[in-house]
Design a protein that fits this description.
The protein has 103 residues and is mainly α. The protein has one domain. It is 64% helix and 6% strand. A hairpin with a 6-residue loop joins strand 1 and strand 2. The longest helix is centred in the C-terminal third of the chain and has 38 residues. The termini are far apart. The structure holds zinc ion. Zinc ion binds next to helix 1.
Length: 103
Amino acid sequence: MTAETVRCVRCGLDLSVKAFRANPRKRDGVNSWCRACHVARTRQWRQEHRDEILARRRAWYAEHADAEQARRTERQAARRRAALAEIDAHLRQEFAAERVRRR
Ligand SMILES: [Zn+2]
């Protein structure tokens, strides 16, 4: 380990400081695991707890179904408004161009 590299405690590789997430609580200012190890561990944890995660998500959706539906409806309406505004702007431009041509 040099000033620019840090040894990952998990994979044992000497890596650039940039390969580690900042952690002000650590003496060297970065996590002891490299980013790749954190990603791998998180992925593994998600796989191990897949059923738990899905069950929790399902419960959350069941509990918030109404709010979630309202949010979805509002998002669709906003998208529709944006599309209409775009068409409106386009037509205005065309009418303006047409008016110029008729002069
Ligand atoms: Zn690592």
